[in-house]
Amino acid sequence: MRPEKLDAAAIAEHLHKMEGWVLDEHGTSIWKAFRFKNFAEAFAFMTQCALEAEKLNHHPEWFNVYNRVDVTLSTHDASGLTELDFKLAAKMDHAAAGRMPDHLK
């Protein structure tokens, strides 16, 4: 079953509850930059997120260099944002907790 695209009000409500996630200019994806203590912490974060993404059958677009992981979430099947994006974003925030230096939170 194809995920249902969220309207602007639902997206705004979700974003209000989340820290650091930014809506793109077209309203079709959310983005967040994660910064970790080192490469090992960044890779551990990505590994944990990959396992969660597989469970949801919803996969991020991400970019990693050393301690930085930039994540973009969107549901391509719906041509925009769905509940899956916000579920995965919440799981990513949880995976990042305790891995990021205090000054980068």
Automatic annotation (TrEMBL):
One of its GO terms (biological process) is tetrahydrobiopterin biosynthetic process. GO terms for molecular function: 4-alpha-hydroxytetrahydrobiopterin dehydratase activity. Pfam families: Pterin_4a (PF01329). It catalyses: (4aS,6R)-4a-hydroxy-L-erythro-5,6,7,8-tetrahydrobiopterin = (6R)-L-erythro-6,7-dihydrobiopterin + H2O. It comes from the Bacteria. It is an enzyme of class 4 (lyase). SUPFAM superfamilies: PCD-like. Keywords: Lyase. Its EC number is 4.2.1.96. Gene3D superfamilies: Transcriptional coactivator/pterin dehydratase (3.30.1360.20). InterPro entries: PCD_sf, Pterin_deHydtase. Belongs to the pterin-4-alpha-carbinolamine dehydratase family. This is Putative pterin-4-alpha-carbinolamine dehydratase. It comes from Sinorhizobium saheli.
